Write a sequence for this structure.
């Protein structure tokens, strides 16, 4: 997969050409659709401003072909011959593409470097592409990182200070024409963000009177009121130009509204007093020939470039610092992309060593007898320090190597040396026919899902070095419904449906699921062949202020997507305000950071995998928030009759976890399957038996029916069913009946996270 | 070396230093350098004034009798008018254009013979001195009109090109340049008019002819006509900016020719 940037900008193409290729924001979906139909681009988005037309894409095949496809598309959509702009196009791939995107978002590639509009324009372009399902994991990550970089550049360097914006550039020019601006008058034709910005600057500089002309007189009046000016009718703008000193034109007119003849007549009436025309409309409002009239100074957006370029020279140091930040961030991003492959191994290694440390520590504590808490802590600290020191070198080395070609080899060796994959005894004594040759893994195209799939792939590859392990990432229809909680959407997520179809068709061999997403009833012919060892199943609270659940102020807004979490939290804190939260973990954290929410609740495992552990404010013990059925566990779904794959994935299976999952799922099935209800269950192995806790809650959290059973590991399903029966008898039945009144179906029982 | 010569060279040194610092000032935009330029120019002006006083003392007449003397006086008048402008407008960039001209005029004067000319009896009298002084002051004012006109054209070209370069940021605003241009014109024109009138009276009085059709007088009248036209266009037809600047430049070229060119053609005689 290759990141690709194809486009042209003010740096390569004149405004006449950009005008011809320009796509208005409202029209963006159309060419986006065309790109999807006529090219093989896996992901794509289109950024079109008056200064640039660019396609950001992720391409699977040959780059050259992709570029041609994009070019054809641009040419056809705006009906511009390819020959007219082919030599103006630039194409960036890999690191160069990442750098370009970062520079564009950070406004370093803008005409007026540091101008703030471009970031918003890129964000809009991204969300339009997102809404059309044109983006996937690659662009999502790229854009999120680009927005982060832009924010950093803005806050850490001075490039965004006022002197390098279109409006202040215009003010500076006005000062060179009129000297002191005090007492001057300005006429605004049309409206728009940039026009208002320029006006504000001019007013700050002493401009006295403001006139506003607009095709909609009401808008003119509204704008005039805002700036204590006077509204005039649109038709009268030429007369008003006789008295105005500065004219800002920003209409949406498709052709020029002021011709040279008009201007000549006006300047006569003005008795040749100079007039400054700022044309920020696109396409342009004022005939460029007006500049030829004596005492008329006409600037369009293109012209402001030079002014700002000079300003930039004064701020070269700032821009250089911004470039340095970008350079570092590009490096970080590329390393991250490459290291994605080693992350699962590093996590397994850490888990394995932690497991040993924990076990040995318990043993030692037992033998040492009575110790003060300080002594216990000292011993624990020592063991942690040892583990960290021993692991530091191999982990650093692995991460470093990950960026190079030999990365996978190091990963394999490390997994073998530390025994991170259960010994593949199963391989001995099996015939050649039973050895898997091809393992195609279906997964959802989200960061987390892909991480999981890679983790599974790495383990399968290590166990079956001769097999060809590959991925098929599915479009994630379930992810698109951002504002509605999944519990209200109903039905099985589309990506699950399409992936299961692919599995049944034989297009893929296995699907990696988060076990808590998997409905209790699988389609006929499919089975869960293996479940991995459970990771941290807890839910965690991330709060903006660092306050724990108990400390959050009454009425605080808490984001979660799951009825289970909502009900259990409301049970403890009925005063909190619950907000529906969708999107991937990054999106959720960003919503929190943006101040929309005071806190969010997410799964610990996901947060840790994405390296966001330090954000966690509080871990909820199962007593506070009982986890979802299957939380923290990956399940491998395969065709029931596919014995080769079954054998292959057996290396992934963790026997004890598998038993516990069977118990939890039996509990859920007895309560009515995969309907959207606040149900939770969590099992743990104790010696040879399983202890299973479960609960059913009302939506408002006022009523919680909970229970606990323990029984032999040999019959987990009976154990789960018995706990369900117990709860039904003790008051869960009416709750469920009430909930079943709601439209339900066999969807997943927990929102994906 | 006579004492007036010493102070003249001192003045020239001051103007040279002033020129250098004005140029450095617009290149670096540093206020301290700009201040140094003003001080150097002021010092030069002081020395120049002393030089004139000593020469008046030695000659017992105004120092306006030879081309050297009138060029030197011309330079002195320009500096005086410029310094007034600088203090009024608080802008030093004009100095970077005016001072080189001052240095040029001063150097030209320094290269000319400085012997004290014996003037014939017809070339004496208060009326003549007033005429010459008025003409030189008027032309010095036009020197400023010329410089601001030149700067206006430069700045205007920068703005019109729509790709203003470094120069653009250094040069003052068009409004200021036009304002200085019109004010210096309004100052210089009456002086030139008076100079022309006194000159005619004097000519009629000494030579008996009011308007000789050859020589300096003709050129003077031509440049007066140009400035009169410029003033009329500015005040009644609303002329300004580029056209006014061009006309001011042409007018001043004529003035220079009248002052220097004609004298050289006539073998260095001023009068």
């Amino acid at each position: 997969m290759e990141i690709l940037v194809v486009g042209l900008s003010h740096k390569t193409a004149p405004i006449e050409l950009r005008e011809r290729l320009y796509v208005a924001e409202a029209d963006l979906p159309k060419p986006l659709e065309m790109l999807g139909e006529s090219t093989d681009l896996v992901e794509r988005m289109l950024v079109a401003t008056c200064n640039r037309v660019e396609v950001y894409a992720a391409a699977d095949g040959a780059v050259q072909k992709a570029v041609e496809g994009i070019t054809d598309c641009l040419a056809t959509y705006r009906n511009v011959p390819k020959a007219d702009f082919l030599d103006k196009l630039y194409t960036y791939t890999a690191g160069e593409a990442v750098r370009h995107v970062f520079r564009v978002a950070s406004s370093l590639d803008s005409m007026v470097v540091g101008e703030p509009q471009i970031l918003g324009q890129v964000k809009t372009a991204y969300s339009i592409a997102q809404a059309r399902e044109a983006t996937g994991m690659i662009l999502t990550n790229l854009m999120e990182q680009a927005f982060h970089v832009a924010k950093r550049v803005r806050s850490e360097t001075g490039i965004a200070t006022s002197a390098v914006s279109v409006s202040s550039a215009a003010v500076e020019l006005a000062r060179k024409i009129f000297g002191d601006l005090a007492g001057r008058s300005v006429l605004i034709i049309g409206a728009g963000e940039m026009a208002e910005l320029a006006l504000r600057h001019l007013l700050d500089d002493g401009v006295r009177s403001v006139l506003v002309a607009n095709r909609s007189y009401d808008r003119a009046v509204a704008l005039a009121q805002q700036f204590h000016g006077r509204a005039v009718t649109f038709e009268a703008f030429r007369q008003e130009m006789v008295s105005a000193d500065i004219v800002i034109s920003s209409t949406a007119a498709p052709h020029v509204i002021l011709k040279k003849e008009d201007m000549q007549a006006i300047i006569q009436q003005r008795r040749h007093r100079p007039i400054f025309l700022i044309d920020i409309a696109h396409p342009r409002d004022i005939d460029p020939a007006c500049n030829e009239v004596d005492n008329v100074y006409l600037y369009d957006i293109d012209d402001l470039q030079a002014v700002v370029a000079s300003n930039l020279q004064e701020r070269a140091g700032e821009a250089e610092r911004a470039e340095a930040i970008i350079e570092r961030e590009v490096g970080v991003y590329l390393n991250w992309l490459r290291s994605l492959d080693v992350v699962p191994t590093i996590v397994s290694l850490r888990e394995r060593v932690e497991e040993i440390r924990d076990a040995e520590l318990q043993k030692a504590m037992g033998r040492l007898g009575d110790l003060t808490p300080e002594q216990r802590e000292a011993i624990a600290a020592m063991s942690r320090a040892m583990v960290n020191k021993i692991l530091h070198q191999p982990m650093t080395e692995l991460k470093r190597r990950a960026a190079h070609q030999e990365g996978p080899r190091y990963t394999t060796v490390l997994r073998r040396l530390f025994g991170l994959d259960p010994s593949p005894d199963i391989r001995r004594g099996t015939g050649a026919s039973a050895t898997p040759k091809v393992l195609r893994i279906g997964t959802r195209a989200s960061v987390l899902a892909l991480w999981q799939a890679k983790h599974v792939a790495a383990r399968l590859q290590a166990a079956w070095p001769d097999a060809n392990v590959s991925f098929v990432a599915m479009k994630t229809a379930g992810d698109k419904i951002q504002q509605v909680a999944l519990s209200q959407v109903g039905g099985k997520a589309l990506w699950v449906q399409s992936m299961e179809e692919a599995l049944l068709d034989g297009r893929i061999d296995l699907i990696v699921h988060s076990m808590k997403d998997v409905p209790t009833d699988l389609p006929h012919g499919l089975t869960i062949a293996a479940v991995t060892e459970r990771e941290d199943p807890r839910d965690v609270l991330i709060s903006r202020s660092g306050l724990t659940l108990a400390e959050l102020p009454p009425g605080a807004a808490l984001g979660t997507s799951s009825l289970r979490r909502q009900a259990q939290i409301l049970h403890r804190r009925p005063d909190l305000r619950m907000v529906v939260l969708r999107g991937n973990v990054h999106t959720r954290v960003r919503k929190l950071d943006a101040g929309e929410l005071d806190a969010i609740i997410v799964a610990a495992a996901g947060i840790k995998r994405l390296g966001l552990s330090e954000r966690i404010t509080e871990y909820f013990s199962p007593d506070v928030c009982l986890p979802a059925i299957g939380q923290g566990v990956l399940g491998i779904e395969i065709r029931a009759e596919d014995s080769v794959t079954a054998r292959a994935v057996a290396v992934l299976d963790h026997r004890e976890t598998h038993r516990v999952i069977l118990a939890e799922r039996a509990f859920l099935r007895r309560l009515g399957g995969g309907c959207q209800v606040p149900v939770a269950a969590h099992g743990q192995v104790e010696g040879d038996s399983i202890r299973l806790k479960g609960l059913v809650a009302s939506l408002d959290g006022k009523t919680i029916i909970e229970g606990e059973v323990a029984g032999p590991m040999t019959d987990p399903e009976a154990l789960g069913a018995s706990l369900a029966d117990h709860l039904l008898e003790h008051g869960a039945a009416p709750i469920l009946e009430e909930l079943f009144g709601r439209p339900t179906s066999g969807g997943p029982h927990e929102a994906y996270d | 070396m006579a004492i007036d010569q010493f102070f003249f060279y001192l003045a020239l040194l001051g103007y040279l230093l002033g020129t250098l610092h004005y140029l450095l000032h617009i290149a670096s935009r540093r206020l301290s350098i700009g201040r140094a330029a003003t001080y150097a120019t002021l010092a030069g002006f002081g020395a120049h004034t002393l030089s004139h006083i000593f020469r008046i003392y030695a000659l017992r007449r105004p120092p306006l009798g030879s081309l050297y003397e009138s060029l030197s006086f011309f330079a002195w008048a320009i500096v005086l008018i410029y310094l007034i402008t600088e203090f009024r407008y608080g802008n030093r960039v004009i100095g970077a254009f005016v001072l080189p001209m001052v240095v040029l005029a001063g150097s030209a004067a320094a290269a000319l013979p400085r012997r004290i000319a014996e003037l014939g009896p017809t070339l004496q009298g208060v009326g003549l001195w007033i005429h010459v002084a008025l003409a030189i002051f008027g032309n010095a004012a036009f020197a400023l009109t010329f410089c601001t006109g030149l700067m206006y054209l430069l700045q205007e070209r920068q703005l019109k090109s729509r790709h203003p370069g470094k120069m653009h940021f250094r040069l003052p605003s068009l409004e200021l340049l036009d304002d200085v241009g019109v004010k210096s014109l309004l100052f210089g024109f009456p002086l030139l008019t008076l100079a022309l009138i006194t000159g005619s009276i004097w000519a009629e009085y000494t030579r008996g002819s009011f308007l000789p059709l050859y020589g300096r007088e003709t050129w003077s009248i031509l440049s007066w006509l140009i400035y009169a036209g410029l003033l009329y266009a500015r005040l009644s037809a609303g002329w300004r900016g580029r056209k006014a600047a061009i006309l001011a430049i042409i007018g001043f070229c004529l003035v220079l020719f009248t002052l220097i060119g004609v004298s050289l053609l006539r073998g260095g005689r001023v009068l």
